[in-house]
Each structure stands twice: as C-alpha cells, then as structure tokens.
Amino acid sequence: MLVQANRRLTIRELAEECEISVGFCHEILTEKLKMHRVAAKFVPRLMTDDQKANCVQVCQELLDRSEEDENFLSRIITSDESWVYGYDIETKDQSSQWVGETSARPKKAHQVQSNVKVMLTVFFDAKGVVHHEYHPQGSTVHQTYYIEVLKRLMDAIRRKRPEMWRSGDWFIHHGNAPAHSALRTREFLAKHSISVLPHPPYSPDLAPCDFFLFPKLKRPLKGRRFETVPELKAIATKELKDITREVYQDCFNKWKHRWDKCVRSEGEYLEWDPDM
C-alpha cells in the first residue's frame, strides 16, 4: 500500500499515483481505511542504532538485577535538576473549555514563562523524597557544587533512611550532565562507596524525574502566577510533599516496566504515561 510505504504523501499525490480523483482518494482514506493525518511528535533526539543498542543493554542489565534481587528497586535513589517557573504556560488541555455549537472559538493571549524561576534538585526513592534543595539564585550546577549537594544527600539518608544508611547497600541514579559525570564527582562517589546505576544518554523516557516527578510537580503550577522566589519555593515544596508514598512506589514499578518495554522495542523512544 502506497500510504504505508510513505505516510507523508498528500491526498493529491496519492490520487495522481493511483489515477483516481482527489475526492475518491479522500473517501478511501477517511471512510474505508479510517485514517487521519497527524503531525509528527517531538522526541528529545532521534537516536542512532548504536545509541538504541546502548539503551537496550542498560535496561536489560537493570532488569536482570531486579529479577535477581527483589529488593533492588527499593535500594535506588534517583535524582535530577529542573527549573520551576513563577509562571508557566498552561497546557492545551488546561486552557481548553466547552463551547456551544455556534460559539466563537475562545481567544488566548500569547504567553511566555516568567523570569521568576528557581532551580530544584531532588532525590527520591520508592518511599518518597529523600532530599531536595533549591539552588542559590545566579549559581550554576558544576562539579564542586554538586559534590556539596551529595554531602547533604548523605546526611538526609542518615536521618530519613537509617537502615539504608547503616547497610550502605544503595545506589544512586542520575543523568549524564557534566556535573554528574565529572571526574571529581566520580572520585567522591567512589571514596564513599556509592554505586552509580547506568543511564543511557538522551533518554528522559527512562528517567523517573523526567517521566514522572517533574511533570507531576509542575502540572498543578501551570497557569498560576507566583511573584517571588520564596512563594514559588513554598508551593513547589508543598506539591512535592503532597505526592503519596503509594504514588512513588507506582513510579518505580512503572520504571521497571519501561526497562522491559525498551528492550522489547529495541531501544525506541517510549511514550509518556498520562496516568503518571
């Protein structure tokens, strides 16, 4: 079938190729084949075959470890950084509204994100947030700063997860940002016998902060306006605390399911889960 070979063909191009009218071609596609035209979705990066193979390898390793050790997921602390804005644009779903059959389409002014913003770093496990902090205004996340964050994380584990701290048998999972992969950071982690779980590059669909926590944190904030950084920090912290332990546990279970889906799809980018 022509349209399966090249889904970007227009109706006119298909009609000319099949030597039929444009109207009849449209009828075949929409009425008989029940097809409709959609725009391509954005993904963070179109990965090479080698990068997809690396995703599969990492996910298979994590799957194997979780099958060998039933407590594997409960020993992981995952983390990342993200900007939180004093005003973030509503999603299309949030700004939509019901209208009558003859009503005009609602108008919406062009909107931009606020200049009021704060960088959040958060570490969490299957029980909930272990440590979070907001970066000082104007600072950047470099290796020296990140090492200090890791020291505060260790103190938080000692206070909030004493059994994990005493056993020393836990893993950290973070992305491949320069501060995370820098030599001094790796030396600090090795010195304190902290094992790092692998994460494939360009794979936010396999990072719990990206596919779960940050979207869940920011969704209630979209369309709301916060004028000061302290106000923004307070509401973001409240949203973090309102996420229940059961939801965090569900996130980790779905993370494992994503490893399996990645392996079965041979490294293809995974869809976002609307239930997260």
From TrEMBL:
Pfam families: Transposase_1. One of its GO terms (molecular function) is methyltransferase activity. InterPro entries: RNaseH_sf, Transposase-MT_Hybrid, Transposase_1. One of its GO terms (biological process) is methylation. Keywords: Methyltransferase, Transferase. This is Histone-lysine N-methyltransferase SETMAR. It comes from Ornithodoros erraticus (European soft tick).
